[in-house]
């Protein structure tokens, strides 16, 4: 049987090598756009001396030296559907970013939405040897977590210990060196369809680059858009993309749940296109300049010139009231939020101490969206922009760039690196334990 974690292992080694060389590219392959940033690391070993292990840590360890974005082609619902088109878009963005950075990049880390993500909560416990928790005890408790049978054709994308408990004390982030007799651990595992990951590997290789890591867009958007308090107390990040809407829930600075809804801004544009009988490009322009979801008395009188070039003089000079446009957009946006609400309810979001919801992604820029979201998702809704990172051009600071900025932060300080210690697996005779230890060490 082939090792399901082999891809991750190879990518992890490449990521380390690229960071040591000092330059790496990050790529967000979306349905509407492909965004690429080239990062230069200040420290050759990629290690950043910063307190804490959250995404805020290590922000000063790198600087953006190249940035580019291009229209995405060949991607639907966040997944590649036409390889050559996607390859052309990726190549265009990468070449433009490399030109700006004036450096050649060999390795790239990519993020994507879609691919049917599934979250699993795992638990394991073990006896502590010698009364003080050592790295070997942590390795054993992580190995004791029962990895579920998530089925063929699935790949582990993220796996993070989110909580440790020592005897009667829970909520420990790092129990090493503490006294106790029984150690327990909760772990979050996220799997996606293997095919989607393989498509991205293939696409990047066709661009003469090596893929040094993959991440879920929902996860990295949360890393970029949630402030530290929100990540600590509990918050959901809703990443409204063009083809898919990503959902991630954070608690105690870790992602504890992720999902994706196969609906996004493109569906709103498609509704406008059908409702007004205009091409998709015109519908997109009307949505961007005049769109909204809350109608006021003024909107009946505000007329929008549709303007198209069909050759029919009457048809090309049509106007529509903004209230009519809102009437087309609102039901679809409500449908997306209703689906997001259903996913959050299924995940038990209402049991978290904080009910904060942060909207980000390109689709979150529709005026009045936060008010509509507050009615459907709960009162504590805010619009989120990605954190500022060094060297990031002004044009890439909007909510549409939350994923690519979050990917920079996750690359600079991956949560897994903190737990990356060598464990002499041979000390434990059990074959399954050794295998799990190897999986943990090589993939985190």
Task: Produce a short descriptive summary.
With 444 residues, the protein is α+β, with helices and mostly antiparallel strands. The chain has helices at residues 6-21, 83-101, 135-143, 194-206, 217-225, 228-233, 265-276, 280-290, 313-316, 322-347, 369-377, 402-412, 431-443, and strands at 23-29, 33-41, 62-71, 75-76, 79-80, 107-112, 118-127, 154-166, 169-172, 182-193, 210-216, 235-240, 245-251, 254-261, 303-305, 319-321, 356-360, 381-383. Among the domains are: 118-191 and 426-443, 2-Layer Sandwich (Dna Ligase, domain 1), CATH 3.30.1490.110; 266-328, Nucleotidyltransferase, domain 5 (2-Layer Sandwich).
pLDDT < 50 runs, ≥5 residues: 44-59, 417-444
**Annotation field: number of helices:** 13
Name of the top-level CATH class of the domain at 118-191 and 426-443:
Alpha Beta
CATH architecture of the domain at 118-191 and 426-443: 2-Layer Sandwich
* DSSP strand content: 25-35%
| Oligomeric status | single chain
Major sheet description: 5 strands, mixed
Give the overall shape, derived from the CA principal axes. globular
The CATH topology of the domain at 118-191 and 426-443 comes to Dna Ligase, domain 1
Q: Report the structural category.
A: alpha+beta
Total number of strands? 18
Mean pLDDT: 83
Q: Order of strands in the sheet with the most strands?
A: 3-2-1-6-11
Q: What Rg, in angstroms, do the CA atoms define?
A: 23 Å
Q: Tell me the helix content.
A: 25-40%
The first-to-last residue Cα distance is 22 Å
